[in-house]
Structure prediction request, 390 residues.
Amino acid sequence: MRRPVAPRSAPAGVCRPYLLAVLSCLVFLGLLLGSGPPVRAAQPSQPPKPREAPPPPEIGLVLVLVVDGLQAGALERADAPGINGLAASGVKVASAGPPLPRDDLPAAAAAVLAGGAAVTVPQQLEARGTKTAFFDGSDGNLRPLAAGISHYFGGPYGGRNRAVVDALLAELGRQLPYLVVAVLPELRPVLDRSGDRGAEYLEAVRDTDVQVGRLLGFLHSRGLFERTLLVLAGTGRQPALILKGPSLREGVVLPPADLADVGPTLAYLTGVDLPGAKGLVLWNALSPRPDRTETYLLERRVEDLSRTVAGMREEMRALYAEREAVEEERRRLAGERAAVAGEIGERDERIRRLEGKVRLMGRVGLALAVGFLLGYWLEYRLLRKRFLMF
Prediction:
């Protein structure tokens, strides 16, 4: 009977190459099975789409505060946290030009509301069927500017800012017009009396800031602040000008502008026209949006300023031509005056000669008369001696 033959084990040196080959095959299979779909040709990279910003809140209220006598420089010296807070969080104009030739309240209010046009922004809104209100702190002096406005409140307020704000808050508590104009009159008499550096004026600015703070507090309490387009404009030689609200930049100080620029800016933001306005839209005060990029806004501002400069050059040329015409007319009149003066001199000389002749003839006549009388007397004496013998 044959005994089974036990299998012979491979030598130790022979097993290692086989194991390495098996492991390599397993790794290769793993790579094949784990690899994704075939690699495609590289596509040109596209920039990621910009993230769209949330749309700005719609304007729920337009509040225009005309503070008679508020000077821009005084806000840096006075304790006015409310007004300065608006300036820091909104748009502040570094130097606002007053209306010319007058810088009083009626002229400044007309510049802010109309921008040099024949109609105002409130009147255009009323024509569209939008209700507006006007709180005339001047006790009726601005009534012509408020013509056609639905709700006119003419006081009397006694020249007190608090009385105007009380009436305004009471009305806003009852109903909410789309646009409200409020005139605060208390600063102007103090400015005229003590100047914008006097302690009395700075204290009056602080009191005015308190009343503005009451308005801001009301807007916050009603959830209206973020949807309020607020304009605060002063009057006088260096009026303050601050804008805050939807569609406006935040924390920006603009280069010099004019009070008359407020009217066209309000008209643009509220969607009405101001035909014939002399002011310009403050494009550089508006915040960029997808439909109006920052480049577009700057281009519009530069374009408007360029047109204004061109118009001013034309006016300067017209003024130069008018000055030349006036100079020519002055020279002509001077020549005519010299000619008339020469003629008058010649006439006076002729008169003097004639007067000399008249005087001479009078003297000659007098001498002849005297000679005649003397001769007559001598003849009388001779005849008397000859014939009367005495």
Observations:
- The radius of gyration is 48 Å.
